[in-house]
Every structure is written in structure tokens, then in C-alpha cells.
Design brief:
By secondary structure, the protein is α/β, with parallel strands linked by helices. The chain has a single domain, classed as Protocatechuate 4,5-dioxygenase, Chain B (3-Layer(aba) Sandwich), CATH 3.40.830.10. Helix content is about 35%, strand content about 15%. The chain contains 4 helices and 4 strands. The strands form 2 sheets. The protein has a two-stranded parallel sheet. Strands 2-3 form a two-stranded parallel sheet. The longest helix is centred in the first third of the chain and has 20 residues. About 20% of the residues are buried.
Length: about 150
């Protein structure tokens, strides 16, 4: 079973990295995880988010995985403000870390963990209208855009 998983991982890694990611210069990643729901849209806002192993029954090595990308509190705050401007509830959580919905793809996409990451929760209840409203509002602006130094 582990061999099949490793083969699938390497196929995914090569296709994603070669076709999408290597030519991009990113300043930060806003990652939405389907594995985190809160009463209001919530953003990680810590400088060094911890790991959250939000699964059970897997081999021990899966609980040793590290993804030590820095957080980006200023991006978290700008994103929170943007969500509030859309008329949606939002808050920051400086204690929340990266769950497997975030660290699993990020570890493949950016293995050096050198791009700051802010994780955004879904809103509990998963009301499509609220999530679509957030996406529509977000599409109109670039709250995280920065100019290269």
C-alpha cells in the first residue's frame, strides 16, 4: 500500500511542480482547507504556525511530518478585513496551525517551506451562498499583492 502511495505522490508532485509552480514567484500563499470549519471565516495569524495532525490510525511516520513555513500575520489581517468588507464574519486565530488539508499539498508544491502561508477555514454549515460571496468579493481584489524587493 505504501509503494502505491509513493508512486501516486511522485506522479502528482512532478505534474504539479513542472506544469504550474516552478515558474511562479510567490510572496505568500492563502490556503483554504476543507479540513477546518469555524463559526466564522477564520485565518491563521501566527508567525510560526504549529502542525495539526487531524487524522488517526495512520503509520507513526505520518505524525512526524513537518511543514515549517512561516505565517504572515499582515496578510491574515488584510484578508480578514477583505472578508469583513464583503459583509461576512471573520476573525484571526494566532494559535491555529496547519492541518493536513494544508500541509499535504504544500509539502509537495513548496518542499522548502520558504513561502509564508495563511490558512483560511470554511464557515461551519458550509452555506454555498456565503462561500461563493467570499469568492466573488475576493476575485475583485488582490489583498495579498506585493511588489518584489
Amino acid at each position: 500500500m505504501r509503494v502505491v502511495g509513493l508512486v501516486a505522490y511522485h506522479v502528482f508532485k512532478e505534474s504539479v511542480r513542472d506544469k504550474v509552480l516552478y515558474n511562479l514567484v510567490l510572496f505568500a500563499v492563502l490556503m483554504i482547507s476543507a479540513h477546518w470549519e469555524e463559526r466564522e471565516f477564520t485565518l491563521t495569524s501566527g508567525v510560526k504556525p504549529p502542525m495539526i495532525y487531524d487524522y488517526g490510525g495512520f503509520p507513526d511516520y505520518t505524525y512526524q511530518i513537518r511543514y515549517d513555513a512561516p505565517g504572515d500575520p499582515s496578510l491574515a489581517e488584510r484578508t480578514r478585513q477583505m472578508i469583513m468588507e464583503a459583509g461576512l464574519p471573520s476573525r484571526l486565530d494566532p494559535e491555529r496551525g496547519f492541518d493536513h488539508g494544508a500541509f499535504t499539498p504544500l509539502k509537495v508544491m513548496y518542499p522548502d517551506a520558504n513561502v509564508p502561508v495563511v490558512q483560511l477555514s470554511l464557515q461551519r454549515g458550509l452555506d454555498p451562498g456565503r462561500h461563493l460571496a467570499l469568492g466573488r468579493h475576493r476575485a475583485g481584489g488582490r489583498c495579498g499583492r506585493r511588489t518584489p524587493a
